[in-house]
Amino acid sequence: RKLFAIMDRSACDVPLEQMAMVTFKTERERASFSVREMTHLLNGGKKNTEARELCERLVERDPDLNVGIHAFFDSSRAEQYAKTMRQIMRVVEIRRTISDQDPSVNDMLTRTMDAYDRSAGMRMYVHETLFRETIWSQGTPEQWAKWRGPISRYEVLGCYAMTELGHSSHLPGLETTATWDIHTDQFIIHSPTLTATKWWIGMAGQTATHTLVLAQLVIDGKSVGLHWFIVPLRDRSTGRLEPGVLAGDVGAKVARAGLDNGFIQFTHVRVPRENMLARWAQVTRDGVYTPPPSQSLVYATLIGERLLVIPSIAAIVSQMITISVRYALARRQGPNDMQIMDYQAHHTSLMPTLAMTYAITFLSRQLTAQWKESLKLSQDTSRQKEFIELSLEMHSITAGLKAWVGWWATDAMEAIRRSMGGHAYSAYNAIGGLIADFGVMTAGGGDNTVLAQQTARFLLSSLKRAQMQQPLAKSVQYLANCEKSNTLEFDVDLIQSRLDSFEALSLSCIKRAADNLTRSVTAGMEIPEAWNSNMHTIMDASRAHIYHLIVRSFANYIASLEQEHTRDILHTLLDLLSLWLLEQLSSLMMEHRVLSSDHISTVRSKKIEASKAVRGQSLPLVDAFGWPDWILKAPLGRFDGAIYTNYFQVVRGAAGAVGV
Predict the structure, then answer these.
(1) What are all long-range contacts of 139-142, with beta carbons under 8 Å and residues at least 24 apart?
(2) How far apart, in whole angstroms, are the C-alpha atoms of residue 100 and residue 95?
């Protein structure tokens, strides 16, 4: 009522909107921390924030890149494809003008394009990360020297042909062959069956000139394992398919219409021996084969892929939570009603998502930095064993995070959609499109159920090492306490005690999975049957470990910060996140006798209190993500709170909105 009384109603014919704008000012004045400093923290430092904002200005002001809301949402598939190609070529032109600047600017330009248009971002990601980085990490220095320039200048457009029509997560089952021909010093790339057709390959549909093919290397009639090969697809001048190559578009998809996902079939396509990436394995002119030190090295490139999926998930959810929080703070049923955010059911639904988004944003950046350091070891032949050990651990972490964070995000996005009622069904408010764009992340880069099990395999092997008192990877150091009882007393009023309860649960779940597998095998089951019969406990172990990793890493990160106000608000988020995750794991906590039903009742009550505390800072917290309105493309998520006027203008401005 006070807000309604102080409004200048002559200035606006939408009183509820003016109330929202006044409310936003009040909410921001209540910030207990520096939003700008938090933005720097989320971006990885002030320098990265400045690079990001420079790139955002470049994209916003360029009509080839920033096409406007109607061209973005109302275009046909063909128009989306053409738009995306124009965007990519424009980015290449811009890069030539900023090539002398810090490399972080180039990186931020790619991130900005991905945040604005995920079809364009995915095209660039396929070429610059999957294609380019695989040649760098899997190729020899000579191969990298040959391909680096053409790739960077976009003189070749590369794609990444791994999955097949009949095979995806089970890579050893891939059917495409690369047969060594000693007479011609060539490999013959071939798709022997329909199910060997490379499928879902981004940029293969109409664009890529070259591809990296993961194929079974065949020497003297015997398959010696999977290896990577560079194979031309199209003539660089005319775009015509190379002889023996059949490639095309897989057709309409749920989202990312501007990306030409395609299929590829090879019929005895010959490539020179130098086109086999040979950092880890080689074939000499005489046909002598040297295998890689570990087959896992062939898959190491997938770690980098998953390390990009996790911050991509965080970016999408951060955009969605920004839109939904602003809408919930602006929306009132009437001038005498409270903001819908103040209803308990509303903020207890949204605030845990905000807390988790912060946690995985920081965690993904830490892991990316660690992996970049590890990759340096891959270039040093004297430290290959160390790199293999680190890559096995990082594979287990990224596989588990992609699975469990992906599943969390699926639920969080649906909660966000529901929180906005019918307005979220409009494409012009971005929520539906973001959910659709996200969908590929639950399957691309590996099926989540398979990946969760790969994390569990690492945990079980690590438990065995712990029981034999052998060295453990950093992420599983707590398994050294494998003989400790989980029937300890925990005080859920204390965050540290909650963290300890996550560790106790993870340890108990891993031990139970190991015991169940042992009993099944002892009873006569083959290992695959025993594994499948105990899948529930195996997945429990994977989930408990990843949740423990997320919350423990967030706590450690907060403890490392110097600024008190920043540390305090992040501690508030940690308080909520730890309580919410305990609630999610409540049945397991009680089943494993880590926490009691009384503990869980306390957790649920405290979660409500913590949600309300975060709600009080929710607008500054989403502002810190730094998403400008033109990237969000959602009138109901506007920074200034003027949601109704702008929403109506967008709808009214659409072609054919009025008339017949």
Answers:
(1) 139/277, 139/278, 139/279, 140/277, 140/278, 140/279
(2) 9
pLDDT of residue 12: 52
H/E element holding 56?
helix 46-61
Q: Where are the beta strands (DSSP E) in 233-302?
A: 245-249, 262-266, 269-272, 282-283, 289-290
C-alpha 528/C-alpha 449 separation (Å) is: 16
Q: Phi/psi class of residue 426: alpha, beta or left (left: φ > 0; alpha: ψ in -120 to 50)?
A: beta
532: Cβ–Cβ under 8 A, 6 or more apart, which residues?
none
pLDDT digits (tens, 9 = 90+) for 351-367: 999 999 999 999 999 99
Rounded to a whole number of angstroms, the distance between the first and last alpha carbons of the chain is 43
- The DSSP code sequence of 381-394 is GGGHHHHHHHHHHH
Half-sphere exposure of 330 (CA within 13 A, CB side): 25
Residue that has been written with the tokens 């999926």 in this structure? 309
Q: Both tokens of residue 439?
A: 């969908």
Cα separation, 422 vs 349, in Å, equals 17
- The CA dihedral of 576, 580, 583, 589, to the nearest 10 degrees, is -80
- Does the structure show a pLDDT above 50 at 9? no
Rg (CA), the chain: 26
Of 87, 357, 160, 122, nearest in space to 255 by CA? 122
pLDDT of residue 487: 62
Is the whole-model pTM more than 0.90? yes
pLDDT(4) > 60: no
Per DSSP, the three-state class of 218 is strand
DSSP helix/strand/coil, 445: coil
Of residues 548, 642, 629, 561, the one with CA closest to residue 592? 548
Under 8 Å between Cβ of 492 and 582: yes
Q: Determine the pLDDT at residue 496.
A: 95
Confidence band for 626, pLDDT divided at 50, 70 and 90: very high
Cβ proximity of 635 and 428 under 8 Å: yes
pLDDT confidence bin for 54, thresholds 50/70/90: very high
The pair of three-digit structure tokens given for residue 31, joined into one six-digit string: 């910030």
Distance between CA atoms of 598 and 491, rounded to whole angstroms? 11
- Structure tokens that stand for 471 in this block: 């060295």
On average, the pLDDT of the chain sits at: 93
Residue with tokens 């200005």: 57
Does an H or E element contain 213, and which? strand 210-219
**Whole-angstrom distance, CA of residue 278 vs CA of residue 227:** 9
DSSP single-letter state for residue 127: I
Q: Specify whether the CB–CB gap between 618 and 325 falls below 8 A.
A: yes
**DSSP letter string over 464-482?**
HHHHTT----GGGGGGGGT
Structure tokens given for 30: 């209540």
- Give CA angle at 557 (556, 561), nearest 5°: 115
Integer CA distances (angstroms), 279 to 135, 225, 274, 389, in order: 9, 15, 11, 18
Residue located via tokens 């095979």: 167
For 98-219, list the strands marked E by DSSP: 158-161, 177-181, 186-190, 198-201, 210-219
CA-CA distance, 560 to 24, in Å (whole number)? 32
List, edge to edge, every strand of the sheet that includes 262-266.
198-201, 262-266, 245-249
280 near 142, Cβ under 8 Å? no
Chain centroid, CA 600 distance in Å: 31
Mean pLDDT calculated for residue range 60-72: 94
Could you give phi then psi for residue 206, rounded to 5 degrees? -140, -5
**What distance in Å separates the CA atoms of residue 207 and residue 84, rounded to the nearest whole number?**
11
